[in-house]
Amino acid sequence: MPDDAAAQREFEARIAAGETVEPKDWMPERYRKQLIRMMSQHAHSEIVGMLPEGNWITRAPTLRRKMGLLAKVQDEAGHGLYIYCGAETLGVSRAELIDQLLTGKAKYASIFNYPTLTWADIGAIGWFVDGAAIVNQTMLAKASYGPYARAMIRICKEENFHKRQGYEIMATLAAGTPAQKRMAQDAVDRWWWPSLMMFGPSDKDSPNSAELTRWGVKRKSNDELRQRFVNLTVAQARAIDLTLPDPALRYDEATKDWHFGPIDWAEFDRVIHGDGPLNRERLAARNEAHASGAWVREAAAAYAAKRAAESGGSAAAA
Amino acid sequence: MQPPGGAPFEHAGSVHAVDAEAALQNARDVYARRGEAVNIWVVPTAAITASTPEDVGPFFDPGNDKPYRHPQFYSVPRGVRV
Ligand SMILES: [Fe+2]
Ligand SMILES: [Fe+2]
């Protein structure tokens, strides 16, 4: 491009017109950087998100629950891969991104640093965490960057199953014995507030929000998305007779919104900056998984090289 | 990937793999877990020849100045459904 200022104006006009940006299009360096940051954090979250749930696969109470959870966790691995692929179209390598995760340089959703103490936590994660992810990802399916938006469309199709399997677990426990119901309520009490934090700080305190909104990556504010999630969830909690742990929760006839109490942002900051209950364990688990999978990658590469040598051709890298 | 029912192939996404066979298996695991496909092609990225964004004008332009390729270009008597 001959003139960056002109290119930038043209770029912003395209965004304003609702066009999508594709990998080979000119884009401001800052747009590229912000998207790499956002998409890689999102991909890392899908990958780390498998850990709290993976913790319960071997202990699922029935075969039906085990199959459901296994399939959900497998989907999350797929989500990570879709988004890594999308991020790679911005000129960054997957190895680089994974390295940033394993060395602790990259962030991921802070909610995955909380422990899954009981089976009910698996229900709460599907219902709240995937529920919140659906609200966020439905918005991102209209993001201005084509590969990101397309990954989100694919992901959104799978998330409803995640949410429903979680909600079904909670509904079953809530209708069970008093001890089962207590277990469900305890999970709600522990996961509700961290789930609200998933949408990120209030927009006035969110350093990246304005820029991402101006470039059409985000189409709604963190606060709008959070409100939408609360509005959807209140009725679902009532239907199965579980109580959201917020005494300030009240319905506003005028706005048709459920108002909620103040969020403890100090806790959010602590967890996102490494001081959550399980930050160290999560990173250690990812590093161990990566290291113990090394022989598989090496064996596959050696096999491919051998086959290529035998056939006299070159190894295909797709 | 080709969806069931005879629809044309559509691009699904990318995978990393050491060879074509592994790419095919990865593509199935990543993009076709719910019966989305009855056929998958994998192609090494380097083997793809693509148009560039700069082409958008000159390369596709001839399509726009030939309105006689569209049915609306032709008039028919009033009241007749053609
Ligand atoms: Fe996901
Ligand atoms: Fe999910």
Short description:
The complex is a heterodimer of chains A (318) and B (82). Chain A is mostly helical.
Q: Describe it for me?
A:
- The complex is a heterodimer of chains A (318) and B (82).
- Chain A has a two-stranded antiparallel ribbon.
- Helices cover 66% and strands 2% of the residues of chain A.
- The relative contact order of chain A is 0.10.
- Chain A is mostly helical.
- Chain A is globular.
- In chain A, helix 2 runs antiparallel to helix 4 and helix 6 runs parallel beside helix 8.
- Chain B is an all-alpha fold and 82 residues long.
- Chain B has a domain of 54 residues.
- Helix content of chain B is 21%, strand content 0%.
- The two termini of chain B are 37 Å apart.
- The model of chain B has no long low-confidence stretch (mean pLDDT 90).
- The chains are: A mainly alpha (318), B mainly alpha (82).
- Chains A and B meet through helix 4, helix 7 and helix 13 of A and helix 1 of B.
- The site of one fe (ii) ion has 5 residues of chain A, from helix 6 and helix 7.
